[in-house]
Each structure stands twice: as C-alpha cells, then as structure tokens.
Specification:
Keywords: ATP synthesis, Cell membrane, CF(1), Hydrogen ion transport, Ion transport, Membrane, Transport
Number of domains: 3
Strand content: 5-15%
Membrane topology: Peripheral membrane protein
Subcellular location: Cell membrane; Membrane
Radius of gyration: 21 Å
Number of strands: 4
Main location: membrane
Helix content: 55-70%
Structural class: alpha+beta
Strand order of the largest sheet: 2-1-3-4
Distance between the termini: 43 Å
Number of helices: 13
Protein name: ATP synthase subunit delta
C-alpha cells in the first residue's frame, strides 16, 4: 500500500466517523459504489485521476450516484475521491473498506466478527462451496444470493451484507481471505483485536473470560476470541493474533520433544 493510499484511507475513515447516522443502507450503497467503480475502468480512472480538479471528481460522483444514493453516502464518496490514491485499484479497495466499517457501525450490538468467522469456517470445511464462491465462471449475483440463503436467520444483517457483497467483488481474492480481512476491519472499527484460538475442545465460559483478560492485558487492547476445534492439538491451546502465534498445545510440545530426541 502506497503512502498516498495510507493517508487517503485514514481520511476516509475519519470522514465516516463524522457522519451523524450510519445505517445498513449506507453500507449497502458503499458496496454498490465499490462494485460500480471496480467494474468500470473509465469510472475508476476518472475518480482516481489526481490531476483532475477536486470539483470535477466530485461532480462525477454526483452525476453517477446522486440520483439513487442517500446524500450522506454521496458526501462520503466525494470525500473519498477528494484524496489522492496510489492507484485506481486502491480507490476501489478504499470504498470497499469503508463499506465494511459502515456495516459494523450500523449494527453495533451484533456479533459481526463472530458471524464472519463462523461463515469462514463453513467455507473452509466445504471445498465445493469454496469452489463455487471462487469460480470465475460463476454469476456474481448468484454467489451473493447463495451466501444470503446460507446466512439467513444465522447471521446479523451486517455480516450477511458484508459476506454477500465481498463474494461478488473478489478481484482475484479467495473467499476466506476476504472474510478474514473483513473480520479484522470490523474488529479494528470497534477498537478490538481478533484472536483465533485452536483447542481440542470448546472452552468453558470461565476459560474464555480468563483467556480474553490475559490477552487483552498482554496486547493492551480489548480482544475478541474466535475458537477453532481441532482434536489434533490433543490439549492446551494455540493462539494467533495477526502474525503473532502463541503455541501452548500438547501437540506442539510433543513435536518439539520428537525433534530433540531425533537431534
């Protein structure tokens, strides 16, 4: 990510924070805008052209999205294109990121991170589903409908919108990658860090509370736990936060012992 894009992303996030009321329609419209801009090289080129006056880019946003979008969404898009982006692709990614953050804001009490994590596990455990969602030959809208049907009654409106929108706008990215990145963005928007815990069996509520408290203290930020059950760890836990891995599993200790004996 170029420095221009980093600054533009920060400015877009600040603009979203300044919106008095963000609802699920705001997020839906931002996803639609990302899809429209990403699907048109002419539109993305015009909106990412830093040599053009800000007013010209703003007028393009008004002409394309003004007739159908809420004024708040149009204003956000105008704020986004007012910044300089390193590339047209980064601009599309920036609009998409703002859509994910908006969905998170729209349902503050929903377990959006958890919903996305659980769906990512469903995808990981079903190769046929992952293939269907990742196929370049599949109809984009049909992928969205499939995700909506799978999540109906099982996930929040925000998580459903995020997942269904992302599988229609993959841009050479894998479904699980998209879901995991979205989960991290939702957590960041809510001031949390996501920890993936791999255990041989489900944690009890008291174990989850203690682990959450310990990790929050260690990393200096609230931590949200997502648990993966894997009998192969035998016992103990393996915890991953971003690129940091804490492996206290029995399987890891046994592997270490085998290596020492072999050496």
């Amino acid at each position: 990510m170029g420095s221009a894009t980093t600054q533009a992303t920060a400015a877009a996030t600040a603009a979203l924070a300044a919106v008095p009321a963000v609802d699920i329609d705001t997020a839906r419209e931002l996803f639609a805008a990302a899809h429209a801009v990403g699907g048109s090289s002419q539109l993305s080129g015009a909106l990412a052209d830093s040599s053009a006056p800000d007013s010209a880019r703003s007028n393009v946003v008004s002409a394309v999205f003004g007739p159908t979008f809420q004024p708040a969404t149009v204003s956000l898009l105008q704020s986004i294109v007012a910044s300089r982006w390193s590339s047209a692709a980064d601009l599309v990614d920036g609009i998409e990121e703002l859509a994910i953050r908006a969905a998170s804001i729209a349902e503050p009490d929903a377990d959006v991170e958890g919903d996305l994590f659980r769906f990512s596990r469903v995808v990981a455990e079903n190769p046929e589903l992952e293939l269907a969602l990742g196929s370049r030959l599949g109809d984009e809208s049909a992928k969205g409908v499939l995700v909506e049907s799978l999540l109906a009654g099982r996930a929040s409106a925000a998580a459903t919108l995020i997942a269904a929108s992302l599988v229609q706008q993959q841009r050479e990215r894998r479904a699980r990658q998209l879901l995991n990145s979205a989960m991290d963005l939702v957590a960041d928007q809510r001031g949390r860090t996501v920890a993936t815990v791999v255990a041989a069996q489900p944690l009890s509520p008291s174990q989850s509370e203690r682990l959450t408290a310990l990790l929050s203290q260690r990393y200096g930020t609230p931590v949200s736990l997502n648990t993966v059950i894997d009998p192969e760890v035998v016992g103990g836990l393996r915890v991953q936060i971003a690129d940091d891995v804490i492996d206290a599993s029995v399987s890891a200790r046994l592997a270490d012992l085998r290596q020492r004996l072999a050496g």
